[in-house]
Amino acid sequence: MGERLAGKTALVTGASRGIGRAIAEAFAAEGCGLVLNARDPSTLSTAAQAIGAEYGVAVQHHACDVTDGAAVKAMVAQAEAVTPIDILVNNAGIHIPNSFLQYSFDDFKAVIESNVYSVFHVTQAVLPAMIERKAGRVINLASSAGKWGSRNQSAYNASKHAVVGITRCLGLEMAPHNVLVNAICPWIVDTDMATSFVEKHAAVAGVSEEELKQRLEASVPLQRWIEPREVAGLAVYLASDEASYINGQAWAIDGGYTMI
Ligand SMILES: NC(=O)c1ccc[n+]([C@@H]2O[C@H](COP(=O)([O-])OP(=O)(O)OC[C@H]3O[C@@H](n4cnc5c(N)ncnc54)[C@H](OP(=O)(O)O)[C@@H]3O)[C@@H](O)[C@H]2O)c1
What we know:
- Helix 2 links the parallel strand 2 (33-38) and strand 3.
- The protein has a single domain, classed as NAD(P)-binding Rossmann-like Domain (Rossmann fold, 3-Layer(aba) Sandwich).
- It is globular and about 50 Å long.
- It is of the alpha/beta class.
- It has helices at residues 18-29, 41-55, 69-82, 105-133, 154-174, 192-205, 209-218, 228-239, and strands at residues 9-12, 33-38, 59-63, 87-90, 136-141, 179-186, 250-253.
- Bound molecules: NADP nicotinamide-adenine-dinucleotide phosphate (NAP).
- Residues 13-20, 37-40, 43, 65-67, 91-95, 114, 118, 141, 143, 186, 188-189, 191-194 line the site of NADP nicotinamide-adenine-dinucleotide phosphate.
- Residues 13-20, 37-40, 43, 65-67, 91-95, 114, 118, 141, 143, 186, 188-189, 191-194 line the site of NADP nicotinamide-adenine-dinucleotide phosphate (NAP).
């Protein structure tokens, strides 16, 4: 247990499982109060209770769909009535792979809405109070898919390129207000999303799930997937006072896949 985020509160979207939950736990372990969000109220409340009990920090939880702008405004207003939000982690997202020609417009749109418009809604709701206090951190979960092209997931890559673009623009716009905005770009992280990613990609590519997983692992220098806690460590750093001059960056966590 540390104190790198003591006295702060973070809103983490998509915090009931996977990377969001790992970030919430790592923040709590550094003394950070939490406002946790996801759609399913039952999984969310179980996660919130477990984290509060384990780390002894204040944990609010608000179930809502972050693609719903009105619901997001209500969530942020309720949270801010209790405590200022010092750190925002835009983590909620979905992945629906397909070959470009096979995508339905509904699937393509759902990915853009969940991964991009969610960032618009939540960030626009949280920034005014950060600007007023002249302090804040925004951390966006983009992806290595926000930096390069991939087969059979053009909607996802388009959405994550957009998240990197928003990060850079907000890094410029928010700097005068002492609100720092960065993105994290992991390669494959071992979560429910990765399991479903392999299942769907194997079907689209016409290979077995095991073969696809082996091919993917062999393609990265560290030859394994990323643990959620390995993403959470960077999020803690970006949220902490140590990162006070880091702004507008898209941080790769890809085991050396890219070296530019
Ligand atoms: N796993 C990877 O390989 C990987 C790699 C790079 C980047 N990322 C990015 O990292 C983020 C987290 O990924 P993950 O692997 O942890 O995903 P995950 O295991 O599928 O978990 C997603 C979380 O987001 C919530 N969520 C999804 N849509 C939501 C919405 N519209 N409103 C509110 N909550 C929502 C889910 O809960 P509910 O279903 O209850 O809403 C869940 O808590 C995503 O942005 C993803 O694109 C993941």
